[in-house]
């Protein structure tokens, strides 16, 4: 037990909003404290962590390909429009929710326990993504170590893993510069190195027979998890320092690759192919959907990472400014990455004598086949290859930090007294468990499982979770109340733009994405391999499982509620039912309101718990009249006790305020009156 007195109120450790009064009946309270949750050591830690989380592998290997296949420069029109309609508002909403509550993706749903399943869905999605995302980092580590040589191993044919179809780029032209007739039936050394040596995919007959574990990939995956664990060992205090390097150094490497790329012969050919606007593509709905998907997945909305990072902020951190810095910085980074990628692809197409569209690929094919092949055509190829894969490593680690911190924070916030003092041990156990679950990805057929996880783990389930979150915050919690919460943090309320997006535009856009992804559903494939029906069914069930978390959470909340079954849904929908006020402990507001109270100021006793007076009277409308609270004043022996009644000022909102801070006002009432 730790004594909480007036002198201790300015300390960063804060208890629940509602506290059990001591035997003396004043504000000298006995309070149980969980271990300190912690905060960022500086504002820049949070900003760089968000930048590192959003600017990931997708900026390098997905955006450039989506841009040139959907109208080139014309793709930027729907891209920035979707950023304004969907990206920025949802980004700001998630940051605001996390910063105001100081809670993770699960505990934050004390605002309305009926929707806690949305937090569970986010946790399931981010767990599945973290398993295969670290496997991609393991591939990057494999190539990074392979680049530490004088000659890149994927530069020449003649190795044991090469076939008779292997053809080096220097042999792709004859002495007169003409293309050989059988060029379309040949395979590059980089492609065979990736598929036959790194993946050893010829040892598997399909997803049902993964084959043997590749010891080299197994060790790379182990190293990746060790790096992640060491960086999140002390939570945001350690990862917040690592991002000073991992979030900034990729920009230096990207700038070096960009300068080197634009100076190559044929670079302008690739850039022109990348940015030439084809405005007739704007008439296609597919282009707009692709732009929205790129924004949605690039910013990482709905994974819980933004909410988790913001929960470690100080209460008055300017997340409004940070929102625009991160979202616009992410968009600019994607565009610059396109210049760096397509300038090299233009040079590559000129060297091979083929059109740019025949060498351009997206996803792992770009990172592990096309770009490594382009590196072999440059002087000092091992140096440029090492820089490229080191950039991918830092980009991937930043996102992985967020995934693991989201899982650890969500669970420790649910069980703070048990897990928070042992957070480092719990983080280690999570890493070990995910490493063991990811061993199937290191087998000969591991790439098939990775593709299945990538296609279904964060597909329609993620969209359903974000739609539910948006509607629960704006419709159930209340848009006016949420804006007042932001006003309390930042000093101003969000304008019409944010309100319109939160209420209508963003949910409608996400719903359109969900419908489009269902209507345009295509079975998974990897190259020429088509997944069997049972694998497709498994993937669909994987996506549906996260969706089912939401109704399952509603059912659990209803069954755990006291009272008659008919009253359960109504009580659980309330952002904070009058008799369930302790569900949402607002640490920041508790501290702010208590610090603003002069010594001797009365506090209110509510249902056997002490409540401080808050500066506002606009708390909401009580739909169920609560018992009249008794006011207890801090007094010295012999002093008269001044007791004030408590009234609640109603405001035109259908639900009671999620932050139950009781107001003390009105005329005098005899002490002891119920």
Summarize this, please?
The chain is mainly α and 674 residues long. It is 55% helix and 3% strand.
Describe what this molecule looks like in 3D.
The chain crosses the membrane at residues 46-64, 76-97, 118-145, 213-233, 242-268, 288-312, 324-348, 383-404, 425-450, 456-477, 497-519, 539-559. This protein has 674 residues and is mainly alpha-helical. It has 23 helices and seven strands. β5 (603-606) and β6 (609-611) form a beta hairpin. The chain is globular and about 75 Å long. It starts with a strand and ends in a 42-residue tail after the last strand. Residues 1-34, 174-181 and 576-674 have low confidence and may be disordered.
Structural class, by secondary structure, is mainly alpha
| CATH class annotation | Mainly Alpha
Low-confidence stretches: 1-34, 174-181, 576-674
Mean pLDDT: 79
Gross morphology: globular
Binding site for Na(+): 52, 55, 59, 298, 330, 395, 398-399
Membrane topology: Multi-pass membrane protein
Transmembrane segments: 46-64, 76-97, 118-145, 213-233, 242-268, 288-312, 324-348, 383-404, 425-450, 456-477, 497-519, 539-559
Family: Belongs to the sodium:neurotransmitter symporter (SNF) (TC 2.A.22) family.
């Amino acid at each position: 037990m730790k004594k909480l007195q007036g002198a201790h109120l300015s300390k960063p450790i804060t208890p629940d909003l509602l506290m059990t009064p001591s035997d003396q009946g004043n504000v000298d309270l006995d309070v149980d404290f969980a271990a300190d949750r912690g905060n960022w050591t500086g504002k820049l830690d949070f900003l760089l962590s968000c930048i590192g989380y959003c600017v990931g592998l997708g900026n390098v290997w997905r955006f450039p390909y989506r841009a040139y296949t959907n109208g080139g420069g014309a793709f930027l029109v729907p891209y920035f429009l979707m950023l304004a309609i969907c990206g920025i508002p949802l980004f700001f909403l998630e940051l605001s929710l996390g910063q105001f509550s100081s809670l993770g993706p699960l505990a934050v749903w004390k605002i309305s326990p009926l929707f806690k399943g949305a937090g569970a869905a986010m946790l399931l999605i981010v767990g599945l993504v973290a398993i295969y995302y670290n496997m991609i980092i393991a591939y990057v580590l494999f190539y990074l170590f392979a680049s530490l040589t004088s000659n890149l191993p994927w530069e020449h044919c003649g190795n044991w893993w090469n076939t008779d179809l292997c053809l080096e780029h220097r042999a792709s032209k004859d002495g007169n510069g003409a293309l050989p007739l059988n060029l379309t039936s040949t395979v590059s050394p980089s492609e065979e190195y990736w598929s036959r040596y790194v993946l050893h995919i010829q040892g598997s007959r399909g997803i049902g027979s993964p084959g043997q574990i590749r010891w080299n990939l197994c060790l790379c995956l182990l190293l990746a998890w060790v790096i992640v664990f060491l960086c999140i060992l002390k939570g945001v205090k350690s990862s917040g320092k690592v991002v000073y390097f991992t979030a900034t150094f990729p920009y230096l490497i990207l700038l070096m690759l960009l300068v080197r790329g634009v100076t190559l012969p044929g670079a302008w050919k690739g850039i022109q192919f990348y940015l030439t606007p084809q405005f007739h593509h704007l008439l296609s709905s597919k282009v707009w959907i692709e732009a929205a998907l790129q924004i949605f997945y690039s910013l990482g909305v709905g994974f819980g990472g933004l909410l988790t990072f913001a929960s470690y902020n100080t209460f008055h951190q300017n997340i409004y400014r940070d929102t625009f810095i991160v979202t616009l910085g992410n968009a600019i980074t994607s565009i610059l990455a396109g210049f760096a990628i397509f300038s090299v692809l233009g040079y590559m197409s000129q060297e091979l004598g083929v059109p740019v569209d025949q060498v351009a690929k997206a996803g792992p094919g770009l990172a592990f086949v096309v770009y490594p092949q382009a590196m072999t055509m440059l002087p000092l190829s091992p140096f440029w290859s090492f820089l490229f894969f080191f950039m991918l490593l830092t980009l991937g680690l930043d996102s992985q930090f967020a995934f693991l911190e989201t899982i650890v924070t969500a669970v420790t916030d649910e069980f703070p007294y048990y897990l928070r003092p042992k957070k480092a041990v719990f983080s280690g156990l999570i890493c070990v468990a995910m490493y063991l679950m990811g061993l199937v990805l290191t087998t000969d057929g591991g790439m098939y499982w990775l593709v299945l996880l990538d296609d279904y783990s964060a597909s329609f389930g993620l969209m359903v979770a974000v739609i539910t979150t948006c509607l629960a915050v704006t419709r159930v919690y209340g848009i006016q109340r949420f804006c007042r919460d932001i006003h309390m943090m930042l000093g101003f309320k969000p304008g019409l733009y944010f309100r319109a997006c939160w209420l209508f535009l963003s949910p409608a856009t996400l719903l359109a994405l969900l419908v489009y992804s269902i209507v345009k559903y295509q079975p998974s494939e990897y190259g020429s391999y088509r997944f069997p029906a049972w694998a497709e069914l498994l993937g669909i069930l994987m996506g549906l499982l996260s969706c089912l978390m939401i109704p399952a959470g509603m059912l659990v909340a209803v069954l755990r509620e006291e009272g008659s079954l008919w009253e359960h849904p109504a009580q659980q929908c309330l952002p904070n039912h009058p008799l369930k006020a302790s569900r949402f402990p607002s640490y920041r507001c508790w501290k702010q309101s208590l610090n603003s109270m002069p010594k001797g100021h009365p506090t209110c006793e509510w249902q056997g718990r002490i409540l401080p007076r808050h500066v506002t009277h606009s708390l909401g409308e009580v739909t169920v009249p609560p018992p009249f609270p008794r006011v207890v004043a801090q007094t010295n022996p012999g002093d008269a006790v001044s007791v004030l009644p408590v009234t609640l000022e109603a405001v035109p909102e259908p639900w009671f305020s999620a932050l139950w801070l009781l107001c003390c006002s009105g005329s005098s009432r005899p002490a002891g009156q119920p």
